[in-house]
Amino acid sequence: MSRRCELTGKGVLTGNNVSHAHNKSRRRYLPNLCNVSLMSEAIGQSYRFRVSANALRTVEHRGGLDAFLLKARDSELSLKARRVKRTLQKTQAAS
Questions:
Q1: Taking the mean position of all CA atoms in its chain, how far away is CA 5?
Q2: Which CATH number covers residue 68?
Q3: Domain assignment present for 6
Q4: Which of 20, 37, 63, 79 could disulfide-pair with 67, CB 3.0 to 4.6 Å?
Q5: Helix, strand, or coil here: 91?
Q6: Does residue 68 contact residue 7 with C-beta atoms inside 8 Å?
């Protein structure tokens, strides 16, 4: 399982550990990923995602999963999130 947020695409960054003596060794900055269930009000179903804590705050700020997905670019979303977005758009077009 890759260390990548399913909603924002945020992934692992690399950098240096720098000691007091200024020795550098490579390190990884991992995203703060959480397993969450997010409810889609338009579809009426709950979906499980592995998202960063930052993305979770953004979902709440934008007003829920539906609003977040409709505003998000497809290139950032995972395959599962794109499928949910497509289902959401079909439900909105039907109603």
A1: 4
A2: 2.30.170.40
A3: no
A4: 63
A5: helix
A6: yes
pTM of the model: 0.88
User: Is there a contact between 35 and 47 (Cβ–Cβ < 8 Å)?
Assistant: no
Per the listing, tokens 């240096």 go with 16
| Residue 22 CA from chain centroid, whole number | 35
CA–CA distance, 65 with 17 (Å, rounded to integer):
37
Give the position of tokens 């804590």.
Answer: 53
| 25 domain residue, yes or no | yes
Residue 14, token pair as written in the block: 């690399």
Question: For residue range 42-74, what is the model confidence (pLDDT) as tens digits?
Answer: 999 999 999 999 999 999 999 999 999 999 999
User: In 3D, which of 55, 59, 53 has the Cα closest to residue 41?
Assistant: 59
